Each structure stands twice: as C-alpha cells, then as structure tokens.
C-alpha cells in the first residue's frame, strides 16, 4: 500500500502543468542532443545546471532526468539513419539498425527502437519504485562508518568499469579527491590549497568545473571532427513493424530490459555497458548468429531496451543512498546541492514529492518521447545539418552567462574556461574525466564521513572492519583490488572494453 500511495503522490507531482512542461522541455532537449553527435547528455546537463537554480527542486530534477533518457531515444535515430551514433549508448545500434535502413527498412528499425525504449523505460520505472523502499530502509541503518566504506566501494567500482587504463582512472579519482579538499576546512578553520586567493576559500565550485571539463571541452573536440554527414535513407512511409518483426524483437526486448536494469545500478557502469552486453547476449542465444551485423532486428531491440533501462535504473543509488552511479548522476547530485538539498537516504523521507515525482515523471516522459520521436523523425534528422561552428559561439556565450549568474563571480567564468582547456587536454591524451568528477563530488562526503566515524569510535580505525556491513563492503573492495592486479582479469577487461 505504501508503494501505491507513493506512486500516487509522484503522479500528482509529475502531472502538475509546470512539471509536465519541464518534462517536455527536458525530453525535447534530450532528443535533440542525442541526435547531434558528440554533445551528449553529460555536457548538456553540465551546461544547463546554472539555469535550474531558479526552478523548484522537483521541476529541475524532472527536466534534467528527461534530458538523460531523452538522449537515449535521439541517439538511436541518427545511429539508424546516418550510421552516426548521437550518443555512446547508441553505438551498437548502428551495427544492425543502419543495415536495416540500407535495405529500405528504416521505418521498422526506428519503430522497434522506440517501442523497445518505451517498454524498457516503463519496466525500469517499476523496478525503481519497487527497489527504492527496501533500499532506502536499509540505508537508514547506515552510520558514517558504513557510508565511508560504501563511498570507497563506489569510487573503486567506477575505476574498474570505466573505459581505458585502470592506472589513469585511479589517478583521476585521486586528483578529484584532492581538488575536493581545496578551501577552508570547516572543522579546523585552516585554509587548504587556497594560495591566498579569497575566491578559493569556499572551495572550487562544482558547476564551473563540470561545465568546463564536460561541456566546453567535449564541444571543442567536436570542432575537429568532420561535419558533413549523409543520410542513407529517409523513406519512412511504413513505420509500423510487421507481426514477424514484433515476434522476433519481443524476447530481445525482455532480455535487454533485464540486463539494462541490472547493469544500470552498478557504480561507474557508464552508458555503453548495458547495450553492448545485451548485443553480445543476443548473438550468443541466436540460432543463426551470422545474421547479426546484417540487419537483425534483435540487434536493435535488445541494445535499445538495455540502454534505456540502464539510464533509468542508474537513478536508484542516487535516490536511495545519495551515491552517484556515473558522471551524469554526479551532476544530478550537484543539482540537488544547488537546491540546498543534501543527497542521501533522508531525501526519500524529507522530500517524498521530489523523489516520487521524478520517478513518476519517467512514465510521462517516456510516453512523450514515443509521441514526439516517430512523427518528427524528419525534423530531428534535419538538425544534423546545423554546423558546429555556428552552435559553438552560442553555447560558449550561454555558458559564460550561466556560470557568472551562479554567484555573480567572474572567477567562476575563468575557472570554467580553464577547466575546458584541461578537459580538452584529457581528451587528447585519452584520459576519461568522469572518475575525476566522481572524486570531486564524493571527496567532501568521504572526508566528512571518515571524520564522523573516527569521532564515533574514539579514533579507532578498526571500526571499519568490526561492523558487519562496513566489513562486507570493504571485503568487496579488497576482492576487486585483487582482481585488478590479476593479469588474466586485466586481459579479459581490456578485451571486453575493446569489443
């Protein structure tokens, strides 16, 4: 009954006119940036953070969530029609979706992608609602000791599942933790790494760092890439898939939804893991694996369902524990903190309208996406003709105004521009900046919980291994570390990431 009451509360929040409008804005922006290759939901959410400052918390989160799952829909459109994935999670859709388009079956491919995404999004919303209550109840038993261990686990899991070198990801996490210590220590009053600059006394503002490193850096890198793209097929007269298509796609949709829902919860899972795993599974269970890569409809349905389900279930650790599962969820934590809300399990009891409103808005948002995506597919594809050289100056101006507006500080603008240069450097040397952002967001929480744990135990560090939940979490960290040192595991990980 409690679940039913909570969902009703969420629906009453999500169906308010202003929240419906912000949800629509979010899914339209999400679809648009999903279509435009290279921009993606992380830079967009980073760029829009300052503009959510004046909104009600529920409206801000509903809009940002809509951008995230809307991008999954938009990315598949260009993957199928242009063979250019608008989003990382859509890369695998190119393999069979574009082959279907080349054979004159673009309509059924787009329709199956949209239906799979809608189906997975709806199921994932139920999963979030069902799992949220027991997880939040468990989280209420956590003290500072368990939180510290959970944060350590989250950071290490992010390193293992992140793309690229483990050593580089670890270095980025530690750099993020180090940057998180800049400013005046609230306990001792001692200035740490402020170099006598008054603007650094409160620490580095999360928003300009995220906007520069994820937003502007990504867009600068896109300026170097070729802008001319050719749409292979625009004949979309028959959007309705046949019964045979639906019969073949439905089991793949189910398997993709299960995989996406499970992998989306993992810390650091990223956008690419669920669709690639779903595609690999479809190839394994297929009677004739040679059809894959040549227009197999299961190769579209499974990955599309997995990426949408994964995008939505990645909200579970954020909403129940206050722990971000990936870089985008770290940005969501930034949005909550800008609204004066401290992330954690108490959010579910103190802000039920916000939490359940966001969960319920995923239903309305997915329905909006189904309606706006298929009939307007021509409009979305035409957006590919907008050259980056025209978008870039507008985005930079937008960012400067937004960053300055957070605290009327020119320092934030320079900080953002400096972070853009650093972020571009990271892209050029092949280092993923997402672990740095996780370190920056989780660093102050890690320090705070460590200090509280030490106060609770009178300075005895054995408290982390004598409390059962904390000991279990640290045991998982130790197993992960040992696995990372194993050459066989490292080789398997590199092969899996390469695939």
Automatic annotation (TrEMBL):
Domain DUF112 stretches: 20-438
UniProt keyword list: Membrane, Transmembrane, Transmembrane helix
Residue spans crossing the bilayer: 20-39, 45-69, 110-138, 144-162, 169-186, 206-223, 315-333, 354-380, 386-406, 469-490
A Pfam family hit: TctA
Superkingdom assignment: Bacteria
Keyword Protease tagged: no
Leader peptide range in chain numbering: none
InterPro entries recorded: DUF112_TM (IPR002823)
Protein name, UniProt field: DUF112 domain-containing protein
Taxon lineage: Bacteria, Pseudomonadati, Pseudomonadota, Alphaproteobacteria, Hyphomicrobiales
């Amino acid at each position: 009954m409690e679940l039913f009451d909570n969902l009703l509360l969420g629906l009453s929040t999500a169906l308010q006119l202003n929240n419906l409008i912000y949800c629509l804005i979010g899914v339209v922006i999400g679809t648009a940036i999903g279509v435009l290759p290279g921009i993606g939901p992380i830079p967009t959410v980073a760029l829009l953070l300052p503009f959510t400052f004046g909104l009600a918390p529920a409206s801000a989160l509903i809009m940002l969530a809509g951008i995230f799952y809307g991008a999954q829909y938009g990315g598949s459109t260009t993957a199928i029609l242009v063979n250019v994935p608008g989003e990382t999670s859509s890369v695998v859709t190119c393999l069979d979706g574009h082959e279907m388009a080349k054979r004159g079956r673009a309509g059924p491919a787009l329709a199956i992608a949209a239906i799979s995404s809608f189906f997975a999004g709806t199921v994932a919303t139920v999963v979030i609602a069902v799992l949220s209550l027991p997880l939040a109840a468990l989280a209420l038993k956590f003290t500072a000791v368990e939180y510290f261990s959970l944060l350590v686990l989250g950071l290490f899991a992010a390193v293992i599942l992140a793309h690229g070198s483990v050593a580089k990801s670890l270095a980025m996490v530690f750099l993020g933790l180090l940057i998180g210590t800049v400013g005046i220590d609230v306990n001792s009053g001692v200035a740490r790494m402020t170099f006598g600059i008054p603007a650094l006394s409160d620490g580095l503002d999360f928003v300009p760092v995220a906007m520069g490193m994820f937003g502007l850096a990504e867009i600068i890198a896109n300026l170097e890439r070729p802008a001319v793209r050719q749409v292979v097929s625009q004949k979309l007269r028959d959007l309705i898939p046949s019964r045979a298509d639906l019969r073949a796609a439905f089991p793949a949709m189910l398997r993709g939804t299960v995989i996406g829902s499970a992998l989306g919860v993992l810390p650091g899972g990223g956008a690419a893991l669920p669709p690639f795993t779903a595609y690999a599974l479809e190839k394994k269970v297929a009677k004739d694996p040679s059809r894959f890569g040549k227009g197999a409809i299961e190769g579209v349905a499974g990955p599309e369902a997995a990426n949408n389900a994964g995008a939505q279930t990645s909200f579970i650790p954020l909403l129940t524990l206050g722990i971000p599962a990936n870089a985008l969820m770290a940005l969501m934590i930034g949005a909550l903190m800008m609204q004066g809300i401290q992330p954690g399990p108490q959010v579910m009891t103190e802000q039920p309208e916000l939490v359940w409103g966001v969960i319920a808005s995923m239903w309305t948002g997915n329905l909006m996406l189904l309606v706006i995506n298929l009939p307007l597919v021509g409009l979305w594809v035409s957006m590919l003709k907008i050259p980056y050289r025209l978008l870039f100056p507008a985005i930079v101006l937008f960012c400067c105004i937004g960053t300055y507006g957070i605290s009327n500080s020119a320092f934030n603008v320079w900080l953002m521009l400096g972070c853009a240069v650093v972020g571009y450097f990271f892209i050029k040397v092949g280092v993923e900046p997402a672990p740095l952002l996780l370190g920056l967001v989780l660093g102050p929480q890690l320090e705070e919980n460590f200090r509280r744990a030490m106060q609770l135990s009178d300075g005895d560090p054995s408290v982390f291994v004598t409390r059962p939940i904390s000991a279990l979490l640290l045991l998982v960290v130790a197993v992960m570390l040992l696995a990372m040192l194993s050459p066989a595991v490292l080789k398997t990980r590199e092969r899996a990431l390469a695939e």
